[in-house]
Amino acid sequence: MPLVFSMTTEKMERMSEPILIVENVKKYFNTARGIIKAVDGVSFFVNQGEVFGVVGESGSGKTTLGNMVVGIYTPTSGKIIYKGQDIAKHAKERPKWLKKDIQIVFQNPASSLNPRRTIRQTLEVPLKVHMPSSNIAERVDKLLEMVDLPPEFAERYPDELGGGEKQLVAIARALATEPSFVVLDEPTSALDVSVQGKIIKILMNLKKRLNLSYMFITHNLSLMSNVADRVAIMYLGKVRELAETRDFFLNPMHPYTRMLLSSIPVITDEEEKLKPKRIESMGEIAGALNIPPGCSFHPRCPFVMDVCRSVDPPLNELAPAHFCSCHLYTTSNNAYDKYKK
Amino acid sequence: MPLIQVKDLRVGYNVYEGLLKVLDGINFFVERKEKVGIIGESACGKTTAMKAIMRILAKNSVLMGGKILYDGNDILRMNDTQFTEIRRKKFSMIFQDPSAALNPVFTIRQQFYDIIRYSSNQRMTKDMIHERAVELLKQAALPEPERILDSYPFQLSGGMKQRVNIAMALVSANELLIADEPGTALDVTIEDQILRLLKKIVEERRISIILISHALGTIKHFVDRIYVMYAGTIVESGPTEKVFKNPKHPYTQLLIDSVPKLTGEGVPEGIPGIVPSYLNPPHGCRFVTRCPYAMQVCKEKVPPSYEVEQLHYASCFLYDNGENGKDE
Ligand SMILES: Nc1ncnc2c1ncn2[C@@H]1O[C@H](COP(=O)(O)OP(=O)(O)OP(=O)(O)O)[C@@H](O)[C@H]1O
Ligand SMILES: Nc1ncnc2c1ncn2[C@@H]1O[C@H](COP(=O)(O)OP(=O)(O)OP(=O)(O)O)[C@@H](O)[C@H]1O
Ligand SMILES: [Mg+2]
Ligand SMILES: [Mg+2]
Fold this sequence. Notes:
The complex is a heterodimer of chains A (341) and B (328).
Chain A (H helix, E strand, L loop, with lengths): L2 H13 L4 E12 L2 E13 L4 E6 L5 H9 L6 E6 L2 E2 L9 H6 E4 L3 H4 L6 H12 L5 H11 L16 H13 L5 E5 L7 H18 L2 E5 L3 H7 L2 E6 L2 E7 H6 L4 H8 L6 H6 L41 E4 L2 E3 L10 H5 L2
Parallel strand pairs in A: 3-8, 3-9, 6-7, 7-8
Antiparallel strand pairs in A: 1-2, 1-4, 4-5, 9-10, 10-12, 11-12
Chain B lengths: L3 E12 L2 E13 L4 E5 L6 H9 L6 E10 L2 E2 L5 H10 L1 E4 L3 H4 L6 H12 L6 H14 L5 H6 L7 H13 L5 E5 L7 H17 L3 E5 L3 H7 L2 E6 L2 E7 H6 L4 H8 L38 H5 L5 E4 L2 E3 L14
Helix pairs in contact in B: 4-5, 5-7
Bound molecules: adenosine-5'-triphosphate (ATP) (2 copies) and magnesium ion (2 copies).
């Protein structure tokens, strides 16, 4: 490819509007025991053609966030702007083109497919709704081919497939309507590494070929470091750090991020050397019903200061395009530097 | 005598197109107080083997042969009363798919209380049951146990359901705990905490554990000995250190190479080729269709297990040096 050409497309991409902008979105659930703040004021954007990674602890609101983007949940407040329009409403109230344009692959392949339908029947559903004029049988074959599954799989039931194969069917179903934005909620966490590699390769090829943008949710940091362009890290309903992937791994700032990176189980000595100095996970893990005051991470933070117990730190841009919400970087102290490698 | 000894286990499934011959005569054992790991590609039969031990195979499964000895008695041939005792008080399993293991129409409280009641020897008061449930949920690193108990499964996140499952499995694990992918839905700090909990339980209760995980890093740090499975067969086994340092079976070598590394750019593409169909599996070695070193003999005969170094076995003709390998 001539250099000039690649430069201009890159520039164009950078100049164009983000495909998705999420602005101070909240999702609260009312329960008998009180209000669960699953997502509590989250903002970010996703550029056209980008893989935006979301990592974070279990229960931090990643799935809830993804569900709001696809319209499974309506936000309690905040804006979700997609291709210039506010779409912060339930799928039932969304126009048809929008439902077709944003799709999701669920966390659990096993329970997201209807066991009583053959794969063909499963793939026909979205086609009949969204593209009734197409040749449906042919489209089903094409979809299976796209995700590298043999055509005879069309007549099988989900029970007769392995976990990886089910997830490929779920991906094919998400792509059936030719979306431009796909939320991938832990698309490979139930699968072994060799199948994972295959699925990621398929996803990345499809992204390029079909010009897709992804919101990629996973807690697998090694995987994230290899697929995402930018990464946001969530903790109890809030984004605590957001950076370009390289930066995120080379220069992690938030103590939670460092704790995550230091506890990755790795298999080679070279990787072991790359990890930050080990930070033990300590303290009580809090829940979304009783979020600790101040910074919600403070009960588990090895660097906790007085201010952390009462004031929630804002998400500041500490280096170009590297955001972090932590008092260690807003107050003058060197507690943190001591722990840096 | 090992706690569990699986001998030549063969299990298949009836499907529309015919019989899927999944487990093809597998052998393995678990000593008392031992931590054993099983790794291998999706669909290689790990869960099937575990369900056979727990006697919870699906209705369309076919037991085609083999034994599972527990203290010398064959579990597969026990009557229901005998096995119920084992299930109530001795063995338990953390399931891979936490959603499928929880009933969507009951609260966690109802389900958890039932399990505690079922496994207990004496009559327990409601308060005692409640206390036990809360204690186990806390141990499983779950915040807000009261809220969790009130919830229906759909109100919990993926990782929360998984931890509820773990807490429930701890109730009756007094001899063997099977943990089928216990960390898949958890972030590494919590996974770490869970593994430390499992280690502590295993040591305190002096029980054995079988850990199944796709995360090779986790396996490497947790278990004493591992088995590597491929397409319904065990291809390699040995002490964890030895197998990771010096993998012998071509499949194990390729599997270890396909882990995405923190150091590397890009996700490795996995092992080329297609997993054979269980309808018509290859006659000889089941890995023959993808093996870079495949020889004529591999197509014809099932490779026996060769001891490649002390206590480290590989089922591969590359290690045939004239002497006959032995079937473990
Ligand atoms: N429908 C609901 N009703 C009540 N609470 C809910 C509901 N859905 C989610 N929650 C709560 O919101 C919080 C965030 O859940 P969510 O599923 O978004 O987490 P997550 O980050 O995806 O976690 P995981 O990594 O475990 O999947 C949890 O405390 C969960 O219990
Ligand atoms: N009830 C069933 N009917 C038909 N086939 C089945 C059934 N249960 C499992 N299988 C098939 O048997 C094979 C082994 O499945 P099993 O669940 O034991 O694999 P696994 O090693 O646990 O895989 P994973 O890592 O994906 O969990 C797969 O091909 C699967 O599709
Ligand atoms: Mg989730
Ligand atoms: Mg399994």
